[in-house]
Amino acid sequence: MDENRGDEIRGTAGGTAPVPLSVLDLVTVGQGRTATQALRTGVDIARLAESRGFHRYWVAEHHSMPGVASSSPAVILAHLAAHTERIRLGSGGVMLPNHAPLVIAEQFGTLEAMAPGRVDLGLGRAPGTDGATAAALRRTERLNEGADDFPQQLAELTRFLDDDFPDGHPYARIHAVPGPVQATSDGGVQSAARPPIWLLGSSGFSARLAGVLGLPFAFAHHFSAQNTVPALDLYRESFKPSAVLDAPYALIGVAALAADEEREARRQVLTGALSMLRLRSGRPGLVPTPEEAEAYAFSPMEREFVDSWLVNIVHGTADEVRTGLDDLAKRTGADELMITANAHSGEARLRSYELIADAYGLPVLG
What we know:
The protein is an alpha/beta fold. About 45% of the residues lie in helices and about 15% in strands. The chain has 15 helices and 9 strands. The chain has an 8-stranded parallel β-barrel, surrounded by 8 helices. It is globular and about 65 Å long.
């Protein structure tokens, strides 16, 4: 195994946390807020996470959702790289079927050049949006083809990242730049390192593929909680040691929000639940205010959806959230928890990460 690659993947638990803690940011935009403000909040969260010893900060690709400003992960990560120094930055994830593998290799090779040794490339096979938007992104109506071709797209992307297409391959003379070709060119001094690949999923497909390929795996517990344990079991059962990892390494995305008072935490997570209800009903919009969410007249069916959504969000006071995260880590055996805090205001999200860091006694780093 390449020890350096394994070290890039594994985190170290800080304070009294049971496993390393990380951040997943959807760059949410609330009513009365702008995308500019949401992106500035992202920088603030990344800086806070870095100063408190969170292991990594990822952004997720979504499209055609007014309340989510993370349509271009590579652009956001480049901005974050200029405002941080140590924390790992990555995609959670880039939806590979939406893009040509060479383009992703170029984008993340550029990010690696900007922030050497701290970039992750998380990949998903879903579109990150509805079918019509996916068709517009891919300029094709054959959407299933992209998902079905995911293993082949992944293999092609890996070849571009490693610059190792075999002789005679149609792409043998094509190089992703920045990339390893600059290290092997005459006079080249560029590092041949490239971002580690993670596979993301909310079902068993990517879990099995990550295991077979010996790659790290990230599971979307925050919106597919019922599949978490089966997917992680499948990943571990399928795992084959590779040059990347000698043992499985799995993180799970966890929706969690802490506030100074339990009632305030409930008010904040209700905004995200109402936003998700509207999205699932084909009415995506900006994240509503706590006042609007509290006043909303839920139908019995809508109330059932919201209650089922909220049961999988760890929320409350800092101590209550710590207990919930501890229990989740124990129940799933996850190697890392990646926390996403969805709320109307950036201030509530920042406060949540600060409270969680304090609850676990995470150090304040210089």
